[in-house]
Amino acid sequence: MTSTANTQQGIVPDSLAREVERASHCPLDCPDHCSLTVTLREEPGGPTQVLKVTGSEHNPFTQGVICSKVRSFGDRVHSAERLTTPLIRKASSPKGPGAEFETASWDDALDLVAKQLLRVQRDHGGEAILPVSYGGSNGALTEGLMDERLWRRLGASRLSRDLCATSSGAAFDGLLGKMPGTDLRDYEYAKLIVVWGQNPKDSGMHLVPTIKAAQAKGAKLVVVDPRSTGLARSADLHLAIHPGTDLCLALAVHNIFFGKGWQADAFLEKHTTGVAKLRDAAALWTVDKAAAETRLDSADIERLAELLHETSPAVIRAGWGPERCRNGGSAMAAIYALAATCGLYGEKGGGLTSSQSRAVQLKSEVAVGAELPAGLRTISLSQVGRALLGHADVLDGGPTPHFVFNYNCNAASTLPNQNAVLKGLRREDLFTVVSEQVMTDTAYYADVILPATTFLEHDEVSAGYGATFLTHARKVMEAVGEARTNAAMFGGIIERAGLAQPGDATELDPLAAAILKETDLADSQRQALTRTGGTLTAFEIENGRAPMPFVDHLPRTPDQKMNLFPEDLDREAHARAQLTGASGGLYVYQPDPATTEYPLALISPAMGRMITSTFGESYAGPAPLFMNRRDAEVRGLAHGDEVRVFNDLGEAHVHVQVGGRDEPAAGTAVLLKGLWARHTANGLSSNALSPDHLSDLGGNACFNDARVEVAPR
Questions:
Q1: Domains plus CATH for the chain?
Q2: Residue 554: is its pLDDT beyond 70?
Q3: Mean of all residue pLDDT scores within the chain
Q4: C-alpha–C-alpha distance, residues 50 and 32, integer Å
Q5: pLDDT higher than 50, residue 11
Q6: Is the CB of residue 663 less than 8 Å from the CB of residue 629?
Q7: Phi/psi of residue 328, each to 5°?
Q8: Residues 466-502: pLDDT tens digits?
Q9: What is the per-residue DSSP string for 155-193?
Q10: β-strand pairing of 220-224 with 237-239
């Protein structure tokens, strides 16, 4: 008797189905860039089922180990909440939670989208069209390509995608240019590892075993983090810093080095400029002054400096936490500069790694195939709420947006000033399109929903920002239902809007080829991409080891030196401070925004179960607010109590977790990022409390500047 298996199409004999394995690479927003093996069940004439996703050995850093999120990626591909057909909001249904939709064909949906785009362009001007997007799958084929072609040809508003990494990017580029950092695999050779503002367990997990291997050989570990994370609990020194004060700590360490004559004079003389101005900025920060602002013990600050002075090789892993505040750019610059002042470069396992220290910069300008119109205004992603509500301070004299296209982003859940965003999205005179894989919070505010493919269902080209790995991954399966790639979706809109031009490349193969041709790659890398879909640096392919900064390559600055006080960054920081009436400049500290009414710093670090808001459909919740025992006791709160965490922008209703694992330092509360409406009692997250002002460099979002109070409810 022939056995059978249940499928979405009915009963299919097992003898007609087959299991296959295909190679892929994860392009999601994580530093590690894992290589994958995907096992599929294929049925003739029926659907393909993802059976399992495992790691492969192609990326030598990830070594076949992957996170539980991607291991379970088949759950998202086949989720009951997966969007499989275009939807159009019913005319009788209001926007927001509970909105009702009816199915539509792709032709009808794209015709409507193109019609509305042209109407808004005609009636209000191209700048009344606002694309709202972010990382998505972090690949060059899904963002900044066909979408960019459409926005340029329409003359749409430019979007500054500044939720993360713009402060660190401005600081890194100003000091070092596009320079690769210390390879994460070489951390195993370090004698001192400083993890500053990152929790690799939840964002970049493969660094954890590397650190453990170094510790097993006797290396010391320092963690700078407001929370008592697992890594912090295993550290030789945990600096539970107050959010937004990393600049003070970094400058105090510089000051100790300069004051004691510990600075690496030979390195500074040969490889840097701007030392004197950095020294002057650091001189303002004595250990005691920094201790008062950071809420750290003076002895611990001195111990950090001593460890950096005494231990070699030493390396700093600079994360994302320090940049998410008013001083974020200066903080990151001061941390990066420590590697020079302390003389960390020159030995295997020594130096600095940042999310900005990438080995490859993908180039897609030729593939876009459209000139950027001059003079278009730019709207910050962090200030979309204000823009949608017509605030003149962010509209730059242009029109209020009347068309929003949200893709690669769950705007309703992830943007600061959440209440303003939601209020703006409810506008009936705003036409909103949402392209998504599953039914997110943002999708309920859409007029049209377009189903998107997952990374297993489309080709992708992406470059790691931690691991030095570049990938060209091929799709492993056909799209579920009627989901379409971004290239096909935007290409269809371009055609219907009459914006296509002769010679436009629209298929993924020629688009990928154009990107890779334009990108600076060696023949050995191109051969590796063709052979395995992934490649390391040309240096490693040719030399059998990862390159070392200041040994195998120099900063990609005009003079090939590290500029410790870039004048353009100083001017930018000064200009941004002037907007708020404050004095400022590079390395100038802006005071803590806490008040008597709102004394607690609220931070929203990564959650291990999600990548920002991606996978929110699989997190049941409810989400807790993490509090320090002392802070809870003062407020009469006990573990498990239902509370409201609030400020003038809004409030979130959650239960409180007092003490325990990952307990924050006194004065800090934690509500993890990426939460959906279903995860809190009132449907609002930490972003309802996050201000939408911008950082000193790069205009980064300042999530960690939220100051709140917590009370029973």
A1: 4-77 (2.20.25), 87-161+373-454+481-504 (3.40.50.740), 167-359+554-568 (3.40.228.10), 593-712 (2.40.40.20)
A2: yes
A3: 95
A4: 22
A5: no
A6: yes
A7: -60, -40
A8: 778 999 999 999 999 999 999 999 999 999 999 999 9
A9: TPPEEE--SSSHHHHHHHHHHHBS-----GGGGGG-SEE
A10: parallel
